[in-house]
């Protein structure tokens, strides 16, 4: 390992630890772990459902949020079973989320801002630190760190996708991986499907202007990546919904799939 | 859900600037001013007009274009900041990139970057509040709502909730063979919903049935009855399903150790989150068939046809009380009501009061009008506010 690579690794580790510590400070400063309206309504229940399926037993116990993808709530549910200081538990939760989010943000910064001739420099490190700090300087992100919503976790693969597509050259393989990561994030949370136009941008904006060679290779790579990423991530939950209702996206797309009876 | 969607194309295009507004309910309920997108737009414009734009690599252009495309799709489709977390993160590195690429001296670029970081940090520091979305606080004990053992938790039963917030967080703390049903809440289980058939099947079980109610109130004495207002509302909801409280048996009250995020009352006592489990009786006969459309349906229909954006036809959940009849449109945060005096009015959930549309007769005849593009309570630019 070269000195520059070692320095970059150290920089990433340091930034991750600092960001996780800052995130942990939020619940510790508040003195509690906050349960939101959504947490009491469906987050904890969905986490429970992730390990103990109850689709045939309960009837929209958490209203229609019962049918949301449950697995990202499993860690929060497990944490809620602990008997102790809520602020400390919340600190671990916030730190874990920050530690998962920072690496792709940092990699994106590294690829966009570049390392000077491939060498680590203090100025470059300062720029990347500023980029990471600016990324997290959002009230929405801070609220996400100290609550139980799955918004931050569901965004992790999507930020990785941005980082993958910031590399040069943007090969078909990279495009497929980025599309797969988008698919995973959309499976985690359907609202991430609004980032669908990214796939078109990643297809259309090439490394060299006018580089139209084998455009269909890239299109197939992106389409296949998106389908595989979404399909694999969604399969466990879609399968359960399909068994229950004949519709893996229940209660959406009822006009497309045969209308079934939950629990029937 | 159009809570955070712009009311016009111009308002949508202006979103990078409106994000600077230190007001709530722009792209999240909380105050969350954000200057990064405005700064990205400005710096991008400056850079695009200068020869320095050649400093940006193709991947940088690709990321920049991708972010702006995603930004405007998000703005017009949903606008909820919680659904744009990836964009809120990616904007940070892009902003640093654009500032660094400016055709300025190194000192000027460093100063600009430091200024942007400082400004954004100040905006976040001044706006962020702990527990902005918290209803209950976990300080000590287990994270789930109940920490007392009771036979109720050890026996299978059918538990019914009839509140907008289902409190399904209770489910893991009760017998796994129990059934939990949020009969009336954000959604109401009724024909022809597939869930209605499932509810009918669950109702045939011989398990004991309980209505689950909750309230946030000063610490009650052990065995205190449910709050009258809460119970009255539940009674109305249950009646439509042929269910009623079993008055021969008392409700069991369980206090939660979670602390509600509510102010102390006049007595200085901290409020408590309390659950009541009240035995239910009832037959399994189907509820009475829905009544035929009456004159108020025509009133609702007329308003829905006039303003489907805020009152989507068929999207309202009916509600009746002594004050009249109403429909609540959850996806648009609106309520349309006809009171006992025949007055028709609507209210967006952020408006301080209802807006009178006219008499029921006038509305039915189509003799009414209101600004369907901007309901009272929707976002206004700072210079438009009274």
Care to give the gist of this entry?
The complex is a heterodimer of chains A (264) and B (386). Chain A is mostly helical and 264 residues long.
Question: What secondary-structure arrangement, pairings included, does this model have?
Answer:
The complex is a heterodimer of chains A (264) and B (386).
Chain A: H1 3-30, E1 33-36, H2 37-51, E2 61-64, H3 74-80, H4 86-113, H5 122-136, H6 139-145, H7 151-165, H8 172-188, H9 197-204, H10 215-245
Helix pairs in contact in A: 1-4, 1-5, 2-3, 4-5, 4-7, 7-8, 8-10
Chain B: H1 9-13, H2 15-18, H3 36-48, H4 58-77, H5 85-100, H6 106-127, E1 134-138, H7 151-154, E2 158-161, E3 179-182, H8 194-203, E4 209-217, H9 228-239, E5 243-245, E6 252-255, E7 259-260, E8 272-282, H10 295-306, E9 317-321, E10 324-329, E11 334-339, E12 343-348, E13 355-359, H11 360-364
Parallel strand pairs in B: 2-3, 2-4
Antiparallel strand pairs in B: 1-7, 4-8, 5-8, 6-8, 9-10, 10-11, 11-12, 12-13
Helix pairs in contact in B: 3-5, 4-5
Characterize the structure shown.
The complex is a heterodimer of chains A (264) and B (386). The relative contact order of chain A is 0.11. Chain A has helices at residues 3-30, 37-51, 74-80, 86-113, 122-136, 139-145, 151-165, 172-188, 197-204, 215-245, and strands spanning 33-36, 61-64. Chain A is built from 10 helices and 2 strands, in the order H-E-H-E-H-H-H-H-H-H-H-H. Chain B has 11 helices and 13 strands. In chain B, strands 2, 3, 4, 5, 6 and 8 form a 6-stranded mixed beta sheet that branches. The relative contact order of chain B is 0.09. The chains are: A mainly alpha (264), B alpha+beta (386). At the A-B interface, helix 1, strand 1, helix 2, strand 2 and helix 3 of A face helix 4, helix 5, helix 6, strand 1 and strand 3 of B.
Keywords:
heterodimer, A: mainly alpha, 2 domains, 2 strands, 65% helix, flat, B: 386 residues, alpha+beta, 6-stranded mixed beta sheet, 11 helices, globular
